[in-house]
User: Fold these one by one.
Assistant:
Number 1:
Amino acid sequence: MRIGGLSPKGLSVVIPALNAAASLPATLAALGDAPAEVLVVDGGSTDGTAEAAKAARLLHAPRGRGGQLAAGIAAATGPWLLLLHADTHLAPGWAEAVRAAMADPGRAHYFRFALDDDSPQARRLERAVAWRCRSLGLPYGDQGLLIHRDLLAAIGGMRPLPLMEDVDLARRLGRARLAEIPVDAITSAARWRRDGYLRRSARNLTCLGLYYIGVPPGIIARIYSGRWRG
């Protein structure tokens, strides 16, 4: 919501979505009317994602988070971009914190990772992610990313990768051009509970390792989704 002059001006929020009808309403509700525009880029959903996105501007692009983000960025009008997952909602105070971060357009800014799960496993994962960001300069897309359009262009823009687009972007930015916003980005833990925290963490680390040794993102995407056979 807009609070006096604290609403971030010129902010376009870009949300790639795929079968996100269950989570997208909470994501959009947390944004309120603070952004200048919100774009939901659907990658071919077969559920009620289009209806859930009725409070935003709905676009369509081929499935693949990097390509969907690239399409949304191309259509966005604001100088500032907030790239946000459809199952992640920002905690109260995000708009004021983003406005403060906009004073530093030479860096990209990510939120603190949090899960909507009270389990000890969730807290351990949150601490591990905080260490990864602090020590390796490697925030993931489920933490959101605030970046000025000029900085994004300077590092080559958003590459239309089917997976690992967040790691690719963080690597091109480098640790010195990344800063934390002290507000939680709260991600649904449904997939972690479904797959198991250890199993999902191991799969994510495997995909990250494959990316770093040069395996094409298309193959990694197939492994990630369990479609590498056949």
Number 2:
Amino acid sequence: MTDRLVDRRLFGRSGLLLAALGLASGAKAAETARPAHRVALQISVNDPALMNLALTNVTNIAEHYAGTGESVAVDLTAFGPGYAMMRADVSPVRERIAALQARFPFVTFSACQNARRAVAASEGKTASEIPQIAQARDVPAGVVHLSELQEAGWSYLRP
């Protein structure tokens, strides 16, 4: 074998080893960056009492893990009639949501865009004419979003 061929083979193997080590360290970093606890909740009814119960559950989860020092991610998804929770014009809990997210930035509020379009159609508007709270993060379909979170290992609660 020529020295060049040996150099290429050695470099190729070393390159593969370095790439594998890089991938392993990247996977390790991603694993440590993932919160220790991930909790998904839903609200699917337009009922202020249930909306407040869901927010109380979110608060209890957030305060518990803040007290233990363990990391947590919380996602509250509103879909169907529960989408009213995410509407800036009619939400009975918009101030509470703003205060909660300001206090606990690891809490996400997901707003189903299927529900937004349905509400818009029933009111003779476009979806963009239905104002959402600033904290809302759009998801195409709330039920799909929750299903995917569960598939990814999130705990699921329904108030």
Number 3:
Amino acid sequence: MTQVLDASAFFAEIPVESPAYTTPSVVGELGDLHAKCRFEALAATGLQVREPCGEDRARVEAAAVRTGDAGVLSATDLDILALALELSAVLVTDDFAVQNVAHRLGIKTQSIRQRPARAIRWRYRCSGCGRYWREPGDCPVCGAPIKRKLK
């Protein structure tokens, strides 16, 4: 079973199956000495660092917009999702927004320390007047911030 590792996989002592992959942006996020050592140990046993293709990245971005998670996903999150999609791999992450988009794309996920996320849909509601909108930002009616709410 091919795995794609999020940064959280390097902070935990979980077993990693080969072949395993991660992205250069994940490696760049590893600031903790323990996580860097874990990365080096896994790299010595076959972990590969690979950039996802642009075509899959575009599919992930479109799926994130449809699930309502586009505003909370980082570029690194989009990269690991695109790589997992490209490799038909299991995505190892504890990030609920990443798991939500993965469910939408049919990517299998494996949680590390958190319970697995269930697929959810978001709504956007004005914190001032209570009206619902299609996207976050400022309410065109009252000017208050529009916030993401669970549907």
